[in-house]
Amino acid sequence: MRPSSVLLQISKTAKAIKQQPLVVVSSIGNPEPQYLHTRHSIGHEVLNELIPRNKFSSSPWPNCNMYRGSSSEDAIFLQTTGYMNLSGQYLRKPWLSIRKEFPDREVRFVVLYDEMDKPLGKYQLRYGKVSSRGHNGLKDIVNKYGNGFYRLGVGIGRPESRKPDDVVNYVLSKIPRKDWEIIKTSVIPDVLEIIRGLR
């Protein structure tokens, strides 16, 4: 292949990448190790399956770990390390910084979180100005950043009791092994396909 043809191919590839949306997947939950493997941190658990734990690196932003591929066409993965109720505070700066880094590309932000309104083994993808359904992590993101992001809720179901204390105890309890196996087989493969579909 002639040098001019090689340069043309490189130019076309670079243009295609530039036009391809960049997907930024962010999981929210509570800090480890205290809340490791709890229902409320199911977003972290799912993200840990997508990206091996030892692949995360420190980032320029506090309370947020990051993993990014070796090329600009790869997705970027973020994982908050602080408390759920401050998720918007932790994600606002990284999201704005990533938008600034890629001014010519559409950036699609996806938040992985626990969804009580969906039964175990189910999930739901929503976008824009939709209800946070009482989820304080989502509320804080909306308050700090706005509604311009995808919500990918992983179903954890609800306890039989609707009493506030019982609900808190439920979401902060450990995920039973049998429940986690259902999530691994029924949800995580679909989450991967959703991420690929957004690119």
UniProtKB/TrEMBL annotation:
Query: What SUPFAM superfamilies does the database record attribute to this sequence?
Result: Peptidyl-tRNA hydrolase-like
An example of a GO molecular function for this protein is: tRNA binding
Tell me which family the UniProt entry assigns to this protein.
Answer: Belongs to the PTH family.
The record's annotation in NCBIfam families points to:
pth (TIGR00447)
One Pfam family this sequence matches: Pept_tRNA_hydro
Alphabetical keyword list:
Hydrolase, RNA-binding, tRNA-binding
Q: Which organism is it from?
A: Cyberlindnera jadinii (strain ATCC 18201 / CBS 1600 / BCRC 20928 / JCM 3617 / NBRC 0987 / NRRL Y-1542) (Torula yeast)
Note the PANTHER family from the entry: PEPTIDYL-TRNA HYDROLASE (PTHR17224:SF1)
In its keyword annotation, does this UniProt entry include Hydrolase?
A: yes
Q: What is its EC number?
A: 3.1.1.29
Keyword Acyltransferase on entry: no
Q: What is this protein called?
A: peptidyl-tRNA hydrolase
